Amino acid sequence: MKAVSLKRIKTELDLLHPDRVKALCLQMAKFKKENKELLSYLLFEADNEQTYINDVKSQLDKLFKEINKSNFYFAKKTILKILRIANKYIKYSGSKQTKVEILIHFCKAFKQSAIPLQQSTALGNIYTRQIIKINNALATLHEDLQFDYSVELQNL
Fold first, then answer.
1. Which of 61, 71, 99, 115 is least surrounded by Cβ atoms within 10 Å, i.e. has the fewest?
2. What CA–CA distances, in Å, run from 10 to 4, 36, 40, 43, 152?
3. Please, what's the b/e burial string for 17-47 (b: 16 or more CB within 10 A of its CB; e: otherwise)?
């Protein structure tokens, strides 16, 4: 996700009601490093969550194509970097459904990357932890969504 310019953010803040600006700033204050990206999400992408999810998925796909598969150590480092980025975007949204969708996509891309999980305990553990996170978040969703995502999860 590319951060929007500070001028555009300021223009958008001028258009909002003061109470709304205050609420956005309070939410932004919880974060330190990614303040500009978080504010960009809140102002420009929070209204269309599916577009946001698709943007995150495409960014994760690009990162998965750049994985160095020559060594398990380098692969693990890159996978952890991708996971940190995914978790950052999940944190911005705060939605359990977004969390489930992004983590399922992460696991699918992880399996499609052709990295043998059985040969590396660390990579296998990373994958297993994400499946556990998906199951925990899935339990809090509506029953219809649980069913839809559990079908996808079983394919993993």
1. 71
2. 10, 11, 11, 10, 41
3. eeeeeeebeeeeeeeeebeebbbbbbbbbee
pTM of the model: 0.79
**End-to-end CA gap in the chain:** 26
Q: At what angle do helices 72-93 and 121-138 cross, to 10 degrees?
A: 20
CA distances to 20, 62, 93 from 59, in Å: 30, 5, 16
Helical spans, DSSP H, in the chain: 6-15, 18-28, 35-40, 49-65, 72-93, 96-112, 121-138, 143-155
**Model pLDDT for residues 42-61, shown as the tens digit of each residue:** 888 888 889 999 999 999 99
Please compute, for residue 127, the number of CA atoms within 13 A of its CA located in the half-sphere on the CB side.
Answer: 21
* Residue 76 amino acid letter: K
Q: What average pLDDT score do residues 147-155 get?
A: 80
Quick one: pLDDT at residue 33? 65
* pLDDT of 90: 93
Q: Which two tokens stand for residue 134?
A: 């998906």
Q: Say how far apart CA 30 and CA 27 lie, in whole Å.
A: 6
